[in-house]
Amino acid sequence: MNNYHLxxxxxLLWFILLVILAPRSFCMDPAKVLFEDATRESNQNIVVDKLxxxxxxxxxxxxxxxxxxxxxxxEYLKEDYAQAYREFQTLIEKFRRNKYSSLAWYxxxxxxxxxxxxxxxxxxxxQSISLNPWGExxxxxxIGIADAYFAKNDYHRALREYxxxxxxxxxxxxxxxxxxxHQNLHNEREFKMSKEELIKKYPLSVESxxxxxxxxxxxxxDESLKVPLEAVWTIQVGSFTREENARNLSATLRKKGYISxxxxxxxxxxxxxxxxxxxFKTEEEVKRKAEEVNRKEDLPTRxxxxx
Length: 307
Fold this sequence. Notes:
It is a single chain. By secondary structure, the protein is an alpha+beta fold. Among the domains are: 23-99; 225-305, Alpha-Beta Plaits (2-Layer Sandwich). The protein contains 15 helices and 4 strands. It has helices at 3-21, 24-27, 30-40, 44-57, 62-77, 81-94, 101-114, 118-131, 138-151, 155-163, 171-184, 188-201, 206-211, 243-255, 283-297; strands spanning 233-240, 260-267, 270-280, 302-305. It has a 4-stranded antiparallel β-sheet. The longest helix has 19 residues, at 3-21. The chain starts with a helix and ends with a strand. The model is unreliable at 1-22 and 216-229 (pLDDT under 50). Residues 227-306 form the SPOR domain. TPR repeats lie at residues 102-135. This is SPOR domain-containing protein.
């Protein structure tokens, strides 16, 4: 072998060794390196920082979409619905018509539903369906629309929406909600028929157990959620200049089983968002509950007489 070929053989060998022994960062996409580092990280704050770095530094990488979706989903699972909504909004605006678009709209709608923004939730559930009418979340979005009408006490519209959904894996839940709609509308005949169908088809389901002892005058829904018509007292547990803070507190209380709602009050040139808890028939009852809430939830309480 002459010197020329020997020289180039050594160059080729050196290049092969360099490729084999080179660090990952030399051989791999830097976005992929960051993403893999994030998947091995146990500290969630560091995970989010690495994922955000991918989004900011490598927006053209497919992993930027994945990263932003993971960030938004983490906020949603933590039940920080305000932050989750913002993250999904960024995903929709920054990466239009990406593979998560329909799911992002569904999640945004779910965030709105969680804080009782039912009208806006309905719009965004519909947007999710329009983007991918055959997607896995399509049926869930349709259920979300029906549930929103039900939560608004619009049982006629809720009934139509539930009936428009094909059964599938959610049939027992849909049938249960149809039964409750008939119950709230006092459609005695339809109520009995759908109740019997539910128990017959799904005898061991939670829905059947919930509805089994219900009659038209004995609603199957949680009695603690029924506000006495003669209630005259409530408890104020917060007052905020930012509506978002009020909604977060109210949503947290509802998840703990309390009745809670928000009232916007104009004071001077601005607005305050007051958070209330419960409705009570007697002053004695509301005082007892206020002490309990103050002790258990560490919240300031102010007893208010309803007008």
